[in-house]
Amino acid sequence: MSKREGCGIAGIALPHGNAASPLFYALYALQHRGQESAGIAVSSSLDGGVENERGGMKRDITLKKGMGLVYQVFSSQHLESLNGNIGIGHVRYSTTGASRIENAEPLLVNYRKGKIAIAHNGNLVNAMDLRRELEREGRIFHSDTDTEVIAQLLAKELMRHDPIAALKEVMKRVIGSYSLTILLNNTLIAVRDPLGIKPLCIGTLNEGNGGMNAGYAIASESTAIETLGGNFIRDVEPGEVLMINPQQNLPRFRAEHPEAEGMDIEQYQVYRCVNSAHCVFEYIYFARPDSVLDGRLVYDVRMKIGERLAEEDDIEADIVSPVPDSGITFAIGYAKRAGIDYLEGLIKNRYVGRTFIMPEQTSRDISVRLKLSVVQTNVVGKRIILVDDSIVRGTTSRIIVDYLKKKGAKEVHLRIGSPPIIAPCYLGIDTPTRKELVAWKRAIDEIGRLLHADSLRYLSLEGLIEAVGIDEKNLCLGCLTENYPVEIPGEVCIARQLKLTHF
Ligand code: SF4
Fold it and tell me: Which of 195, 280, 433, 486 gets mutated to test ligand 1 (max ligand atoms within 8 A of its CB)?
């Protein structure tokens, strides 16, 4: 699999203390979602702030971001200098905009009433149109990301509305996928797009756990909240906005969530969806297996995918072996259901970081062998069922099949835990064009021959939907079916019904 992830976001609100430290660990736990850059923005809701020209109070936001992995960007001195009890964080893999520091997030936007910091996971499909409109109105952009479009639009609406009404206006205009954490004055805001395409969840932090105070954590995946020793509460609902202001008192939420004692939260269901469109690849590949997404443990889904793959198969083999790491859980599920031994034919070199950049003259073969090596005694003379999560271009899969055969494998039967990827993703994942996808306009047998496999089989679409356990109407399957949940010029759209909720 060489699909690249989108981004990971986090938000922390504490009654007192420093939000930068838990944000650092949360981003560490989300590092798999983006390795190009990392950033943290914090603010204090405890001091009075500075009076703005309109008589309101504006609070300062301190931002630190840089290129690289979380531990490369932040030193302990940086974390100490990021003073504030509320904050947001981001790890990025670029889906729009080049890989450069100006595009790293959180993005900070100044407007007349104060500052907004924003972190985004997803991709807007109408960002260019909105940007042109905002530029015509005189707004100056400092990055080429769609995140800045959201921030500028929000800044504009905040001049005439309160924050929730402003967000409602923004959500009316933007089309695409967006899970957001926002820092605005003394409030941490979480927003999930009306279709819930990208994940977002909320949890509480415990008093005295690793020096952290009771508070709230927002994160792309529940595993980040677990890392902080916190308690996962629930997913942020599609179309929902949560506002967390450590100084306010809203007893209703506390009554519903006694574990949230000490902190309060406002909940607004801005859109209520008839259907949602959760990205199915979060379950197949992007999310960590120990995360719970929309009520499902990703590990369980991957086991079921592996079992289903075996149920749909009839090949005879000696061992089931994964392409590590992405194929491991599928292969365990397959081996269990098929009653065939699970044995590692490939070992991953864990010291080749995801951001490792090969010298230009490095061949594709060497780059694969740097990451994976064959355990020869496990494969020699064996008929191998080799399990991976998906195939994009197919180049890596072919090299792996050749490598196993060169080391003595008798047969290599490639089994894939998703249906063929036949179309690009426009909603937050970096995928190539149709022509570069090996499955585009090719029969399965032909793809198998191209990959030098003795046989190739993909999981059926029905099998995938059953394994995920979410109704097809509530999933995004765009890259597998060419039917997208939002309107994209030149593509087929099966629009989900949305309703603006009045509150
Ligand atoms: S098109 Fe594919 S990768 Fe993109 S959001 Fe939909 S299911 Fe996920």
Answer: 280
